[in-house]
Specification:
This protein is mostly helical. 70% of the residues lie in helices and 7% in strands.
Length: 211
């Protein structure tokens, strides 16, 4: 992600005033931090599952499952925070002038000054075939922050008997999902989403510079 942020920064620096640029640098730094934080929690989840053998069953929930719940909840929140930051990046780079407290997917998507291509990217990722992954972190975050804990939203089942190390599962929309595989897929989805938006922001900025 650092490479993509630096590449975008090179294109943006000539296009904005010093004050605008300082705000954008802060936003891009925040985005990198949030994305790296998501990676950090995924690494912790993998490590906790891999090291969850040879633990007595009467303490297994407290020693293995509870830390996993902490990490998964933090993973989901960090993913959603990354999305929130990219909405602010769009607001500033496209000069939509939406009040900071009102910046969200809906206000950015519907803004008349936003470009058609950025709206298309937002629609493709949030409304079409990949929307299940979008809902995973965008909607689940609301539930686990405002209504429930991750233990209620995504109860974990751990299978000890099929392979050399335990496999952790949760159920999403009636389908059993491998925790690590699903979270890796969700993180790759987020990465593609951010990169595609960066690419379109870069194209728009270059076009504006040529005017």
């Amino acid at each position: 992600m650092k490479h993509y942020i630096e590449k975008l920064s090179d294109k943006l620096s000539e296009y904005y005033s010093d004050e605008e640029w300082d705000i954008l640098v802060d936003l891009l730094n925040s985005l990198e931090f949030k994305y790296n934080k998501t990676n950090y929690h995924l690494d912790n989840i993998k490590e906790k599952i891999e090291k969850s053998t040879n633990i007595e069953m009467d303490i297994y929930y407290d020693v293995v499952c509870v830390p996993l719940y902490y990490e998964i909840e933090s993973f989901v929140i960090a993913m959603r925070s990354t999305v929130d930051i990219i909405m602010h990046v769009i607001n500033k780079t496209m000069k939509l002038n939406i009040e900071a407290s009102k910046v969200n997917l809906g206000t950015v998507y519907k803004h008349p000054e936003n470009t058609k291509m950025i709206r298309n990217i937002l629609h493709r990722y949030t409304h079409n075939r990949e929307s299940a992954l979008w809902n995973f972190f965008y909607q689940f975050r609301n539930e686990i922050v405002h209504e429930k804990s991750i233990t209620q939203v995504l109860p974990i089942v751990i299978n000890f008997f099929q392979v050399s190390h335990p496999l952790a599962y949760f159920e999403i929309k009636g389908q059993k999902q491998n925790v690590i595989t699903y979270l890796e897929t969700a993180l790759n989805f987020l990465k593609r989403f951010v990169i595609h938006l960066f690419e379109q922001i870069e194209i728009t900025v270059e076009h504006n510079l040529k005017k």
